[in-house]
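note to self: dont lose this again. the chain is below, predicted strucutre after it. 244 aa total, dont forget to put it in the shared folder this time
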Amino acid sequence: MYLTKLVEADPATGQVTGHPCFGCPARDAALCDALTLPERVAFRQLGNRKLLSPDDTLCWQGDHAAYVYTVTKGVLRLSRMLTDGRRQIAGFAFPGAFIGVTLEDEHSFTVEAVTRAELCQCSRTRFDAFVERHPSMQQRLYSAAAGELAAAREQLVLLGCKTAVERLASFLLDMARHTPQPASGAICAALPMSRRDIADYLGLRVETISRELSALKAHRVIRMTGVHMLEIVDRDTLDRLAAS
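---
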């Protein structure tokens, strides 16, 4: 894990050069999409770029929440340890996700990298001051909070009402939405996380995940195209299972 400067300026002209916002893959999904380009440059000057290797920890549950982060590349998992030692994964953060905004002074979840990941890091103090000066960011924060609330409600339904195969179907469709799709028209879903991660997210046993994946493959609903990639062959069936 290490940090690099986000912005470099020409010492003669003071102009920003090589600015990462220009080619950021999460540019259209991140909170800073609400800003003009000069505002983005000003925002990026507040922080650093943080690089994580798989299984690196960004922050621990209970840590002082001194920074906020925007995921620009990779996938991270948000988890919490229960009092009996079990782990519950609350969600996965994809490019564009914003991490660290909380009403409390402590992080509610442990955040770890599933894959190699890059994030923009900014101190909460500087971030709060910047948001105060830019109402467009306030609106995006509100929209992001509303989206997280809706996702939390969906997760409650998933864990409380759905069967194992219905939970898995919902998860695979969600992963497909986060996966760049090929020009061939096939519907693919990248699964960079382990089956243990999937099980801890869906509230199931690892053996159950393996069994239900095998059943979906046997019924030609999905097919594996790589170690961490599958193709959804029968979208209608998967949709029907997810909607049950």
